[in-house]
Design brief:
The chain is an alpha+beta fold and 107 residues long. The chain has a single domain, classed as 2-Layer Sandwich (Alpha-Beta Plaits). 18% of the residues lie in helices and 11% in strands. It contains 3 helices and 4 strands, in the order βαβββαα. The strands form 2 sheets. The chain has a two-stranded antiparallel ribbon. It has a two-stranded antiparallel sheet with strand order 2-3. The chain is globular, with a radius of gyration of 12 Å.
């Protein structure tokens, strides 16, 4: 099992989760975070830290979020590791309740 960052992270990119990760498995893109499934140790420490509930176990992925399993794996090979909390984007609060943000993911 691994944890997966899903669509609700897009344009919010809160980084509270990265500080509690004991293995530094988070990677940062322009407006999204991903988890490296090869590095994740399934500790679940990150899950309660996410204010937008964007981290879920792979076996509980909703059907409409399945593509994020592969996106996390692929993008974690390209994007740099993030291990320290940063300020969220200025407009993150505005994006918290918005769904259907997949087309806004900046690769």
């Amino acid at each position: 099992m691994t944890f997966v960052v899903i669509e609700s992270c897009i344009k919010c990119k809160y980084t509270d989760c990265v500080e509690v990760c004991p293995v530094e498995c988070f990677h940062e893109g322009l407006n999204f975070l991903v988890i490296n499934p090869e590095e994740c140790i399934d500790c679940a420490l990150c899950v309660p830290e996410c204010p937008v509930d964007a981290i879920v176990p792979d076996h509980k992925l909703p059907p409409d979020q399945m593509e994020f399993l592969q996106l996390n794996a692929d993008l974690s090979r390209e994007w740099p590791i993030i291990s320290q909390r940063k300020s969220p984007p200025d407009d993150a609060q505005e994006w918290r309740q918005i769904s259907d943000k997949r087309d806004l993911l900046e690769l």
